[in-house]
């Protein structure tokens, strides 16, 4: 089954405009999602909008939007004010800059989408794709979708372009807010342990192969669901592994043991 595009438009930079289609790069079809069920009658429950002050369920026509300015202090914003702040939908990814991808911290990355050319734009698409590869650059631009402005990064990948949704900087939590951060930055590393840690990383290094990494939780839940959906299936129960008490270990000794064990894994990878 061929993928369906979720957006059509143009990549635009300077006087160049490339017609493209956007596709979802990920799928939620295999993700497990649960509904809340009343355990007495197995009926799916309904969510209620309840007001604790009035002690009653509130109909939707009485609901308005409020922003929590301070604790329990809400600024009411009308639907008209929200509508006026929304951006007009455009059919353009407006490129602002070309940057080195190594300069963008991974925390900025959010969702990803594929970009494929329209037939009339293949030549320009190929040109941009190759130019990004040759220069080692990626494009950063803005797009308006669902009335909201978004930041995207465009990078070449396997004959297409990927548009990564980026967070704006004001959406990121400052690392200085984290407690005890100076415990890491002020700590000195033991050189013998560092040497072993590097050797361990080298022994466990291998070419990237995404198919090796499985969502074992997802697979286990699916097996439970499939077994319960089939009344003739026999349940196979396994004793839960006993939790061992945490042990205080010598870091250097543990690293030495890990390095020895990783040598066998390195031989398998090679």
Summary?
The chain is α+β, with helices and mostly antiparallel strands. The protein is 26% helix and 29% strand.
Q: How would you describe what is shown here?
A:
The chain has 270 residues and is an alpha+beta fold. The protein has a domain at 7-23 and 87-171: Ku70, Chain: A, Domain 2. Helices cover 26% and strands 29% of the residues. The chain contains six helices and 13 strands. It has helices at residues 79-85, 122-135, 182-185, 191-203, 216-229, 251-269; strands spanning 7-13, 16-24, 37-38, 43-44, 50-51, 56-57, 65-70, 73-77, 92-99, 109-117, 138-145, 148-157, 160-166. The strands form four sheets. A seven-stranded mixed beta barrel has the order 1-2-10-13-12-11-9. It has a two-stranded antiparallel sheet with strand order 3-4. Strand 1 and strand 2 form a beta hairpin. Helix 4 runs parallel beside helix 6 (251-269). The two termini are 37 Å apart. Mean pLDDT is 85; it is low at 235-239.
Short key terms for the protein model shown above:
26% helix, Ku70, Chain: A, Domain 2, alpha+beta, two-stranded antiparallel ribbon, 6 helices, seven-stranded mixed barrel, extended, 270 residues, 29% strand
The sequence of SSEs as H and E is EEEEEEEEHEEHEEEHHHH
The CATH topology of the domain at 7-23 and 87-171 corresponds to Ku70, Chain: A, Domain 2
The average pLDDT value, as a whole number, equals 85
Would you tell me the structural class of the helices and strands?
alpha+beta
Q: What is the helix fraction of residues, given as a range?
A: 25-40%
Q: Beta-strand level of the residues, as a percent range?
A: 25-35%
- What is the tally of beta strands? 13
CATH level 1 name of the domain at 7-23 and 87-171: Mainly Beta
Widest beta sheet: strand line-up: 1-2-10-13-12-11-9
Please give the CATH architecture of the domain at 7-23 and 87-171. Answer: Beta Barrel
Spatial extent as radius of gyration:
26 Å
Helical stretch count?
6
Largest sheet: 7 strands, mixed, barrel
Low-confidence stretches: 235-239
| Apparent shape | extended
Distance between the termini: 37 Å
